[in-house]
Amino acid sequence: MAAGAVCAAFIITAMGTDRLGHASMIEVHHLTLCYRDRTAVHALSGRFETGSHTAVVGPNGAGKSTLLAALAGIKSADQGHVHSHGKLAFLAQLSTLDKQFPLMVRELALAGAWSRRGAWRGLSKQDRLQADAALERVGLSDFANAPISNLSGGQLQRARFARLIVEDADVLLLDEPFANVDSTTVDKLLEVQDDWHRQGKTQITVLHDISQVRAHYPQTLLLAQSAIAWGNTADVLTNELLAEANRRAQHWRNDAAWCEVCE
Amino acid sequence: MAQYEIISALTEFAFMRRALVGSMALAIGCAPVGILLLLRRMSLFGDALSHAVLPGAAIGFLLGGLTLPWLAGGGLVAGLLVALAASVAARKSRLNEDASFAGFYLLALAIGVLIVSKWGSSVDLIHLLFGSVLAIDDPSLLIVSSVATITLLWLAIEYRGIVLECADSGFIAATSGNGMRFHIGFMVIAVLNFVAAFQAMGTLMAVGLMMLPAATARLWVERLSMLFVLSWAIALFACVAGLIASYQWDLPSGPAIVLIAGALYCLSLLLAPFGLFVRRKSRHHAI
């Protein structure tokens, strides 16, 4: 398909302007995102329903992280828009957390209360209990009073999950949360995600491990700049569709201009 | 009795009393700024700033002579301009904070040296560079203590935010727009403290009162709150001891204060639990 034709084809979707009264979902309309002068995500439309538990998969450079940043409101849309309802929390892939910072593990978990307490309101006893419970859930109770510099990579990721638990958001956006983490930790964190799913939270997780997605994530968005498929995991992760995503990835070049929006 | 002489000197002479109060106010403001600079990995920011304020201070000096309001006013404007321009350049361009600071402070330094050598004299330059805590007059004292007060108030209001922004800027960006409010606020506070310090300590020495107590405290303690307390204590001690040494042996006060803080730093490198010879007790482990 010619590059211009992809961009020019105005995709009319069924989900136009209807606004549902749902508490926590994200809708994207014809969303196009640029990464520098390249197209990262092209004309994506669809909805992450309330309580859905979606994995976003696709080859490297498919625009997964860029999409998540846009959903989180950190990156603005270059075309189209994102509508989100409910409180968002975002776990970035490349953590900006300074591991050497003199912060105790409990304090890091308590930082999750920032979104409700802000700069000035005092922390309640409930906040502290919640932080301790979160550390218990991720298996870091013994480290509550240790400085974060003492934690290993996997333990640090557990601590960041504890902070997410304390944040108690309605929509959770996680960018490759299991990269460079051992399998025990992955299992523990998958349990936490299952908790959130039972609580009815909406989750969108970028992942690379296809078998993990099949086992734990009911919905999948297969992304290769635009959506190859989006729906029930079993329907999306077929060999043909995965091959189609990889085939598209082979055509991406550094200088390929896909869309005039980003040129 | 040497001790009595020293104490009576501190109480007897008005200039000593002023110097003591002034330098203690400086220590109160500069120590926490140093901690935050250290934790933001901007320890050399003060050095960049010490060059950056030069053109402003020089212009202030030409307009109003060697008085703090003019020097401080000029330095404040120049320092803020450089700090804000560099911050914006760092966030918007591909340059890192250190590179963008280097660009702007070198520019400012060249302008400053040009102004001083064209219209000032070398004596003025020495004064700007090395300062004199013993020459603190009432307006200077007022400025120095106002800056310390503003710093403490700002810390009281923004402490949680600035700490979280230092620890994890991405987290603050994702939960509350962006951390610009904390970053800009901190830059302004840092410039204010620097400008307050340079009349007393000189532009080159003012950084010492910020960074040395902070770096020393980091070698001893792990908790953030203790870091602040200890670096305040070190800065206050260095000020008082440095002043006494300066009076006793007729030394320039700025270097004397910085040397005391520097000696504590070297000693801590040797002795402190997080110094050169690490003997960390109670490392947490799982098994």
TrEMBL record, chain B:
<feature type="transmembrane region" description="Helical">
    <location>
        <begin position="140"/>
        <end position="159"/>
    </location>
</feature>
<protein>
    <submittedName>
        <fullName>Zinc ABC transporter permease</fullName>
    </submittedName>
</protein>
<feature type="transmembrane region" description="Helical">
    <location>
        <begin position="102"/>
        <end position="120"/>
    </location>
</feature>
<keyword id="KW-1133">Transmembrane helix</keyword>
<dbReference type="GO" id="GO:0043190">
    <property type="term" value="C:ATP-binding cassette (ABC) transporter complex"/>
</dbReference>
<feature type="transmembrane region" description="Helical">
    <location>
        <begin position="180"/>
        <end position="198"/>
    </location>
</feature>
<dbReference type="InterPro" id="IPR001626">
    <property type="entry name" value="ABC_TroCD"/>
</dbReference>
<keyword id="KW-0472">Membrane</keyword>
<dbReference type="Pfam" id="PF00950">
    <property type="entry name" value="ABC-3"/>
</dbReference>
<dbReference type="GO" id="GO:0010043">
    <property type="term" value="P:response to zinc ion"/>
</dbReference>
<comment type="similarity">
    <text>Belongs to the ABC-3 integral membrane protein family.</text>
</comment>
<dbReference type="GO" id="GO:0055085">
    <property type="term" value="P:transmembrane transport"/>
</dbReference>
<keyword id="KW-0813">Transport</keyword>
<feature type="transmembrane region" description="Helical">
    <location>
        <begin position="70"/>
        <end position="90"/>
    </location>
</feature>
<feature type="transmembrane region" description="Helical">
    <location>
        <begin position="228"/>
        <end position="249"/>
    </location>
</feature>
<dbReference type="InterPro" id="IPR037294">
    <property type="entry name" value="ABC_BtuC-like"/>
</dbReference>
<feature type="transmembrane region" description="Helical">
    <location>
        <begin position="255"/>
        <end position="278"/>
    </location>
</feature>
<keyword id="KW-0812">Transmembrane</keyword>
<feature type="transmembrane region" description="Helical">
    <location>
        <begin position="204"/>
        <end position="221"/>
    </location>
</feature>
<feature type="transmembrane region" description="Helical">
    <location>
        <begin position="20"/>
        <end position="39"/>
    </location>
</feature>
